Amino acid sequence: MRTIRDLSSLSETVGAWKKGGETIAVVPTMGALHEGHLSLVRMAKNSADRTIVTIFVNPTQFNNPSDLELYPRSEAQDAALLELEGADVLFAPAATEIYPDGFSTKISVSGVSEGLCGAFRPGHFDGVATVVAKLLLMTQADKAIFGEKDYQQLHVVRRLVRDLNIRSEIIGHPTVREADGLALSSRNLRLTPAQRKIAPKLAAFISEAAGKIAQGRPVASTLLQARCAIEASGFDKVEYLEMRAEKDLKPLPALTEPARLLVAAFLGEIRLIDNMIVPFPAR
Ligand code: AMP
Questions:
Q1: What is the mean pLDDT of the segment spanning 203-208?
Q2: Model confidence over 235-279: pLDDT tens digits?
Q3: Which residues line ligand 1 (CB under 6 A)?
Q4: What region does 254 belong to: left with phi over 0, alpha with psi -120 to 50, or beta?
Q5: Separation of 73 CA from ligand 1 center, angstroms?
């Protein structure tokens, strides 16, 4: 595996692959890689001739400076894991390579980026959309793999490539979980042992709520009960817990089409997100 940090080496490498008729799958990440990321890398390897993993802690998608500062970084270990998985290239650029002096463009996807995380993290999805567009174009990705863990982000990216005619097929990968149900996340590294014990309850309560809604219980009261149960279990605050349509993320007051529950909650300073399918059709 080659680690590349500059754009000219990247375009030379992808240019040579393209000339030889090879296809490229890209996995964009912010590093501190775990089994969830590595599953995406395996999917990439199975879907194209060449695999590029990008590691870039994108400053423009952090609305909280301390979250950016404390974001875990472990590039040497990440590179060793990617080597074992057989990735062809690790693209780990400096911020100046992505945002050189004078950089002034921002991509803003309306609709799917509104509400949920978009309501609580102003500017976050503009940062995501802008950097993802750049990474897909720089890597000439035929395919790009994104986790369903960040379900709203997956919708934003799908909308972005459609709207801007970016020629990358976006593939979603199911959320990878710990044995106790906690969705893997780089931020889990920051949980104290006591918080780590509470953390899996988030998945457990939304999964229970999804089951109840599928059995015909009313959505609003079921979500309210789940929200109270999450807070009573030790979470400091539930930021949102909502049911949205799978197709376009529109709010769904009742289970009238395939849906997901999406949640964000704080354990101390650490914000965890998760989502679950609501089985459909309801009986
Ligand atoms: P991040 O490094 O957190 O920006 O994540 C990079 C990619 O990995 C994104 O597409 C995430 O959705 C995906 N990802 C992160 N955690 C998981 C997980 N537990 N299961 C599946 N995909 C994940």
A1: 98
A2: 999 999 999 999 999 999 999 999 999 999 999 999 999 999 999
A3: 29-30, 36-37, 40, 146-147, 149-150, 173, 175-176, 183-186
A4: beta
A5: 15
Residue 250 C-alpha to ligand 1 middle, in angstroms?
23
In testing the pocket of ligand 1, which one of 37, 52, 124 has its CB within 8 Å of the most ligand atoms?
A: 37
DSSP secondary structure of the chain: -EEE-SHHHHHHHHHHHHHTT--EEEEEE-SS--HHHHHHHHHHHHHSSEEEEEE---GGG-SSHHHHHHS---HHHHHHHHHHHT-SEEE---HHHHS-TT--------STTSSTHHHHSTTHHHHHHHHHHHHHHHHT-SEEEEEGGGHHHHHHHHHHHHHTT---EEEEEPPPB-TTSPBP-GGGGG--HHHHHHTTHHHHHHHHHHHHHHTT--HHHHHHHHHHHHHHTT-SEEEEEEEEETTT--B-SS-SSSEEEEEEEEETTEEEEEEEEE-SS--
User: What residues are paired with 145 via a beta bridge?
Assistant: 171
Q: Is residue 209 predicted with pLDDT exceeding 60?
A: yes
The residue from 34, 37, 124, 173 that is catalytic is: 37
Q: How many CB atoms lie within 10 A of CB 215?
A: 12
pLDDT digits (tens, 9 = 90+) for 114-147: 999 999 999 999 999 999 999 999 999 999 999 9
* pLDDT of 163 strictly over 60: yes
Q: Could you tell me if 129 and 150 are in contact, meaning their C-beta atoms sit under 8 angstroms apart?
A: no
pLDDT tens per residue across span 2-61 = 999 999 999 999 999 999 999 999 999 999 999 999 999 999 999 999 999 999 999 999
- For residue 282, pLDDT beyond 60: no
